[in-house]
From TrEMBL:
GO molecular function: RNA binding
PANTHER family linked: ANTITERMINATION NUSB DOMAIN-CONTAINING PROTEIN, N UTILIZATION SUBSTANCE PROTEIN B-RELATED
This protein's name: Transcription antitermination protein NusB
Highest rank taxon of the organism: Bacteria
Protein encoded by which gene: nusB
Pfam families in the cross-refs: NusB (PF01029)
UniProt entry keywords in alphabetical sequence: RNA-binding, Transcription, Transcription antitermination, Transcription regulation
Family: Belongs to the NusB family.
InterPro entries xrefs: NusB-like_sf, NusB_fam, NusB_RsmB_TIM44
Role played: Involved in transcription antitermination. Required for transcription of ribosomal RNA (rRNA) genes. Binds specifically to the boxA antiterminator sequence of the ribosomal RNA (rrn) operons.
Length: 158
């Protein structure tokens, strides 16, 4: 029997898993930052010491942690028009997932918009309330139509 996976596909799967791990750690770190108000650089250092990050894209983890924290207001303002409630009424996990997704849509243009949305939906499924992934999906989809208009139109015209 032969193995159908090639070294290239194994590398891609490994990179995907490392990025997913980075997003998961970033969500937890941002949640801690949001609730405790601890400085981001301290949380970054703490996570690197307290967690096994050998299979994590650590650069992505730090980029998300620092980028989301430093652009919180900008991110919130971009998806706020699509919310059906006030920011203060959002569950803290949902809010953090929305911020990560918005950051990726707005500042990581090399990530396809569908990947950015899907990864946020997966975070919401793992860490959020029962139906929060649907809410996150709807908000980020509307945001993508605004901030990635050309990419969204190109995908829908195929």
């Amino acid at each position: 029997m032969s193995d159908n996976t090639t070294p290239k596909s194994n590398k891609k799967a490994s990179l995907t898993a490392q990025r997913r791990s980075a997003r998961s750690f970033a969500l937890q770190a941002l949640y801690q930052w949001q609730l405790a108000g601890q400085p981001v650089n301290e949380i970054d250092a703490q996570f690197r010491v307290d967690n096994d990050m050998r299979n994590t894209d650590v650069r992505l983890f730090s980029e998300l942690l620092i980028g989301v924290a430093s652009r919180k207001s900008e991110l919130d303002e971009r998806y706020k028009p699509f919310l059906d409630r006030e920011l203060s009424e959002l569950d803290p996990v949902e809010l953090t997932v929305l911020r990560i997704g918005a950051y990726e849509l707005m500042h990581r243009l090399e990530v396809p918009y569908r990947v950015a949305i899907n990864e946020s939906v997966e975070l919401a499924k793992v860490f959020g309330a029962t139906e929060s992934h649907r809410y996150v999906n709807g908000i980020l989809d509307k945001l993508a139509q605004r901030v990635r208009m050309a990419e969204v139109k190109a995908k829908s015209s195929r």
